[in-house]
Amino acid sequence: MQTTKGAVALAISLSCVGIVASAQAQGSRDYPSKPVRLVVPFPAGGPTDLLARVVSQRMGESMRQTIVVDNKPGGNTIIGADAVAKAPADGYTLLMAVDNTLVMNQYLYSKLPYDPVKDFEPIGKVAVSPLLVVTNQAGPKSMQELVAQAKAAPAKVTYGFGTFTTQLSGELLKRTLGKDVVSVPYKGSSGTTQGLLSNDVTFTIDGITSALPHIEKGTLRPLARLSSKSIPALASVPTLADAGVKVPDIDVWMALLAPKGTPADIVARLNRELVQALQAKDVQEKLQSAGLLADPSSPQALRSFMASEAARWRPVIEEAGIKVD
């Protein structure tokens, strides 16, 4: 009798598993059957928000479903990321993350409410915002001149930063310029730009979005770009390598992810739609106007890229002793 009961229980259990699997398969085939929520861990109006809105509109048109951008700023992107990490893994909640979200935060904070590797399914890299070494009109005329000044009198060379990415980029650059170059913290890119315009610092590292208007007016001068990628608006600006500074490419980058456990076919579908959207000329032009370059990848390539970025930035953060809490 016990054996019979066990067999019946097993049969019921297997039947339930089959029903769930069938429902999941049907759900994947029907995807998306309702609006998709795309969480942006920043306020509306910034580069990442613009990126999310441009890309989601094109993807939504192709998928014949609305993708709603949901801004959840705060905590250096932690609040928005955590919300997605804890969302159902059904493809209806996505995250537009940045480098801090997926790489730096795990080393800047003693404890995160999410795990950047274990809690997400990578969908694909989306775009990059190239960084520039920028000075004012009273500053050095070239990257080579900045290096020479720093080697001659490092304590007289000051570097302003306003974000974790620019702070860490400066720490890498200081390995060439000299550890005695003085770092000066500001609140955001606008703060560093003002410090530079006021001649309070020698140079900053900033994104194109913030720097380009001042470069076009002639009040700031770009010395080098930290990326080997071509920047149409600044084609004549040399790379660090051109200036003889050996630092790997540094970009602020954005990526699309879903909660861990999202079905593989949904992830693959979203990746195809993402890549297709980023290949559209009008989408690329809109992104370039905001200082962004489309940079799509496969889910596997994004996962590998995250690992390589973590391996690069962890020692920089630890050596600099940078901690938020």
Beta-strand percentage range: 15-25%
Q: SSE string, helix = H, strand = E?
A: HEHEHEHEHEHEHEHEEHHEH
Number-wise, the strands total 10
Q: Please report the first level of CATH classification, the CATH class of the largest domain.
A: Alpha Beta
Specify Rg, calculated over alpha carbons.
23 Å
Question: Which percent bin holds the helix content?
Answer: 40-55%
Describe this protein's structure:
The protein is α/β, with parallel strands linked by helices and 325 residues long. It folds into two domains: 34-128 and 253-320, Bordetella uptake gene, domain 1 (D-Maltodextrin-Binding Protein, domain 2, 3-Layer(aba) Sandwich); 130-234, 3-Layer(aba) Sandwich (D-Maltodextrin-Binding Protein, domain 2). It has helices at residues 2-30, 47-63, 78-85, 99-108, 143-152, 164-177, 188-197, 208-217, 264-279, 281-289, 299-320, and strands at residues 36-40, 67-71, 93-98, 120-136, 158-161, 182-185, 203-207, 220-225, 251-259, 293-294. Strands 1, 2, 3, 4, 5, 6, 7, 8, 9 and 10 form a ten-stranded mixed sheet that branches. The chain is globular. The termini are far apart.
Give the arrangement of secondary structure elements.
Elements: H1 2-30, E1 36-40, H2 47-63, E2 67-71, H3 78-85, E3 93-98, H4 99-108, E4 120-136, H5 143-152, E5 158-161, H6 164-177, E6 182-185, H7 188-197, E7 203-207, H8 208-217, E8 220-225, E9 251-259, H9 264-279, H10 281-289, E10 293-294, H11 299-320
